[in-house]
Amino acid sequence: MTLVLLLMACVLTCAGQIAQKYAVEGWRGGDAGIAAKLRSPWLWLALLCLGLGLLVWLLVLQRLEVGVAYPMLSLNFVLITLVAHYLFKEHIDLRHWCGVGLVIAGVALLGQHA
After folding, report:
1. pLDDT of residue 73
2. How far apart are CA 91 and CA 68, in angstroms?
3. CA gap 49, 12 in Å, rounded
4. Threshold 0.85, pTM exceeds
C-alpha cells in the first residue's frame, strides 16, 4: 500500500507540473491580464493535482521514514523527462538519459529498504 501511495504522489505531482506547463504555454503571446490567467483550466488542474499530491504525500510520510520517502520523489525527475521527450518533443541528450538511469538505480536501491 505504501508503494502505491508513493507512486500516486509522484504521478499527481507530475500531472500538476504538466498542467502548469500547459497553463503558461496558453499565456504566451497574449497580453491577458491576471484575471484571464486565473480562468485557465490548466492552472486549476495544476492546483488540484498538486494539492491532492500533497495530501497523498502526507499519507506516505506516515508510513515511511522521510530519509527513505523523500529520495523516492526523484521518480518525478524520470517521469517529467519522459513527458518532456515524448509529449513536448524536447531533445534529451545522452548525459540526461544517463542521469535518469542513475536515478532509477537509486530508487531501486532505496525501494529494497521500504
Report:
1. 87
2. 31
3. 5
4. no
Annotated domain spans of the chain: 2-113
Give the CB-side neighbour count of residue 111, counting CA atoms within 13 A.
14
Each residue's pLDDT tens digit, 3-60 = 899 999 999 999 999 999 999 887 777 667 787 778 889 999 999 999 999 999 999 9
Gap between the Cα atoms of 1 and 55, Å rounded: 15
3-state SS record for 16-62: HHHHHHHHHHHHCCCCCCHHHHHCCHHHHHHHHHHHHHHHHHHHHHH
Cell of 60: 506516505
Q: Helix, strand, coil: what percent of the chain each, to 5?
A: 80, 0, 20
